[in-house]
Amino acid sequence: MNIAPNSYSRTRKRLLAAVASLAVAGAVGFGIVTTGTAPVLADAVRVEAPQVPGFADIVERVSPAVVSVKVKAKIEPAADDGSDQSDDQDGMNNLPDNPQLRRFFKEFRGFGDQNGQNQFGNRRFNHRDHNNDQPRPVAQGSGFFISDDGYLVTNNHVVEEGSAFTVVMNDGKELDAKLIGTDPRTDLAVLKVDGVGKFTYVDFADDSKVRVGDWVVAVGNPFGLGGTVTAGIVSARGRDIGAGPYDDFLQIDASVNRGNSGGPTFNLNGQVVGINTAIFSPSGGSVGIAFDIPASTAKQVVEDLMKNGSVQRGWLGVEIQPVTSDIAESLGLKSEKGALVSSAQDDGPGKKAGITAGDVITQVDGKDVASPKELARLIGAYSPGKPVDVTVWRDGKSETIKVDLGKLPASDKQASADQQQPAAPAKPDTLADLGLTVTKSEKGKGLVVTDVDPDSDAADRGIQPGDIITSVNSVEVSGTDDVTKAMADAVKSGRKAVLMQITRDDSNRFVALPVAKG
Q: Phi/psi at 452 (nearest 5 deg)?
């Protein structure tokens, strides 16, 4: 078929226009606009949100002051029992030839998370001591400088077995250190590095201003890794974990693991608010519960260690126990505060000054005593020989006694009782209202408990056969009539309980028992 030239030209133009339209439609449909031959992609997602401040500035400034502490000691060889264990000190030769089983027992025997690390967080090393002339590694923890001339703080439990000490700086440099002093009661120790120049150091904070919920940063040497930083908050204050008479720990939730012992916890100003000393960990790793020695406690102890190499504490020489609601009721106290004296040691300054069993210590130099722990901290803060005014609640009224404090013995003395547990005579008497069967002591002082009604208040409060009742409401008893009279006097005074002094295993304590009104 013949097409005229003009018709062909018009047809070609229409086809080219259609192709161009499809090209533009395709570009729009796929979201790409072409400029030349290179495609241009859309911008990446970016959210303009408020930026949360980090801890990098704090860490950068304080990290040079934090060190790892390596401890070595000379280890005595194992006792020779006649067996040849030169090639089998770990007993590994008796195991089946199973690599996994052998690795498990090797870890369990001292290199893993079981016996290889102690409960407070420092790494303990097992070793084979073929050469006793050279100290061997026994522990590794953390520490921090508190002065530019080389004094540094760590935990007592990190260094307690050591004879040689090395600190590893933030830059990896190792320096020898010497032990200046330790204080096992607060788990603190001071080391000193000499002849190296000036060090970056940190200060203690005023931990009285620390609040639950404040941010904190822990820096230390977990698992021997060195220079590790974790962050969290203060979870609680004044924790008592049963470590000693001066328990007053900060609880934090920053990750603290074995090897962090002795390391510092900082506030956002780069000041030390606490020293890592213990963790709660059923598994051996961090579960978000760690305990710090407060800065106020550490500062006082560290100053004494730097000055004297030891801590000299005041000593009152009394055994004390908490004031329960029943005890407060029996003594006519309005609250459960104070520390009840269960006995006063014969050679103690308290007894010499006139403090006796049954007194409730409510103040020391005008400072309120909330609990036995508070009393221990208050007295321990004084120097030996310091005269203090001790306020006691006695016979329904307050009385102030001046006491010249003694020096706390190297090991805590326990008050001793004169009474020995005698054999019970054949004819017991019954205190039916109290659920007790008693008999006179052979020494004529006190009543020996021979039986306790299991459904009685006495049983609920822990009184047992063999206990000796020495007094009731501060009045010595030698027969059941004395007990009955004391109970009647309590009822007349409107009291709901009587306070019994009990001796057991040469130790005294007080128990409040309800009295029936009728």
A: -130, 125
Q: Answer for the pair 215, 52: CB distance below 8 angstroms, yes or no.
A: no
Active site residues: 157, 187, 261
Query: Are 260 and 142 in contact, with CB atoms under 8 Å apart?
Result: yes
Work out the burial of residue 233: count CB atoms within 10 Å of its CB; fewer than 13 is exposed, 13-18 middle, 19 or more buried: middle
Within 8 A by CB and 6+ apart from 108, the residues are 114, 115
Q: Please, where in the chain does CATH 2.30.42.10 lie?
A: 314-407, 429-514
In whole angstroms, give the CA distance from residue 492 to residue 483. Answer: 14
The neighbour count for residue 249, using CB atoms within 10 Å, is: 23
CATH of domain 60-76+102-311: 2.40.10.120
Task: Could you please state the CATH topology (level 3) that the domain comprising 429-514 is classified under.
Answer: Pdz3 Domain (2.30.42)
Digitized pLDDT (tens) for each residue of the chain, 518 residues in all: 555 555 555 555 565 555 444 444 444 444 444 555 677 888 899 888 887 788 999 999 999 999 999 999 876 655 544 444 444 444 455 545 555 444 444 433 333 333 334 444 454 444 444 455 667 777 889 999 999 999 999 999 999 888 899 999 999 999 999 999 999 989 999 999 998 889 999 999 998 899 999 999 999 999 888 889 999 999 999 888 777 777 889 999 999 988 899 999 999 999 999 999 988 877 767 888 999 999 999 999 999 999 999 888 899 999 889 998 888 888 888 889 999 998 888 889 999 999 998 999 999 999 999 888 889 888 988 889 999 999 999 988 999 999 999 988 865 443 333 333 343 343 567 787 788 888 887 766 788 888 888 888 888 888 888 888 888 887 888 888 888 888 888 888 778 888 888 888 777 888 888 876 54
Q: Hey, CA dihedral for 5, 10, 14, 17, is it positive or negative?
A: positive
- CATH domain 314-407 topology: Pdz3 Domain (2.30.42)
Residue given tokens 């009647």 in the structure block: 488
Please name the amino acid found at residue 140: Q
pTM score of the predicted model? 0.66
Which amino acid is it at 276? N
